[in-house]
Amino acid sequence: MEGGLVCWHCGRPFVVPASRCPWCGQTIMVICARCKQYTDVRGTVCEHCGAPLEPDRPESLRIGVGLDDRTSQLIADRRRARLVASGVVAQHLSEFFYADAQRRTVLVDLFGLPLDSRREAAGLLFAAIAYLVREGYCALQPAGDSESLLWAEIRPWDGQTLSLEGALARQAGLGQTLAHSLRQAVAEAAGVSPEPERPADRRRRTAAVPVARPVAEGVVETARRTVLPEHQDKEACREMYQLLVQFVQQDPSLARRIAGEILEVLTWLQA
Fold first, then answer.
1. How far is CA 245 from the centre of its chain?
2. Cα gap 157→4, rounded to integer Å
């Protein structure tokens, strides 16, 4: 079953059989009650054992046969893990934001100091965008209004689903501006609504309703939890810092524009 799998909802490939598509979240497979293997939900018989299709009961799925969606995604991420920029930077934030009288890193130049959760989140999102562009997954293109930037897909993302790169890649190719794509991706990573709460909604809120965690902290946590392949920290940091420098040096004005849009989105969602 591994390899060559394509979601019949969104048409994108995925690696490990799962109940939901890692890209669009639609239900695509169920576990056969007889042979305990994933099979296409659209069928009337199991693709493996040929028995009339009867999905396994949730009780049996919890006894080591099936896995919840997040666990399935983590297992898939271990198999498809790439050395993504956001994951590396998240593990070495102080080094990537290092500055003294002699040198300033590119993230300090773009987002300033002191290092706080908002600047951390902004730096991680910038790193994820730079990685996707430099590695040929996404591109920034002029929009029809000649003012906005479109977030375009070059090729489907084949790395970690649970990562900032994955969240941003899922927004590519939908005809959206970079700002809109950032809002959706950041909201997904932080577990908040992409639409700001109206004043009337705030008045109706009671103490019993939990308040969403800060957006910036949610972004940082997502990056820190990203599954990475085995690597040497020093070499990985050198490689990712070089990627950031090359991205900024290729078009400094574009880099600053992206940084500004990231900060605006974080402020807008946190409001």
1. 22
2. 15
CB 32 within 8 A of CB 49: yes
CA distance linking residue 140 with residue 172, whole number of Å: 10
Residue 201 tokens read as 């909604």
Backbone angles phi, psi at 89, to 5 degrees: -60, -40
Closest CA to 156 of 80, 249, 254, 61: 80
pTM of the model: 0.71
In angstroms, how far is CA 121 from the centroid of its own chain? 13
Name the residue among 266, 237, 257 with its Cα closest to residue 97: 237
Residues 6+ apart with CB under 8 A from 69: 18, 19, 20
Q: What is the pLDDT of residue 63?
A: 36
d(CA 170, CA 181): 9
| Those residues with Cβ within 8 angstroms of residue 136's Cβ, 6 or more apart along the chain or in another chain | 154, 155
**Nearby residues of 91 by Cβ (< 8 Å), 6 or more positions away:** 224, 233
DSSP state of 55: B
Q: For the segment 217-237, what is each residue's pLDDT rounded down to a tens digit?
A: 999 999 999 999 999 999 999
Q: By C-alpha distance, which of 68, 101, 90, 76 is closest to 2?
A: 76
| Residues of the chain under the 50 pLDDT cut | 1-3, 58-65, 196-212
Give strand pairing partners of 138. Answer: 153
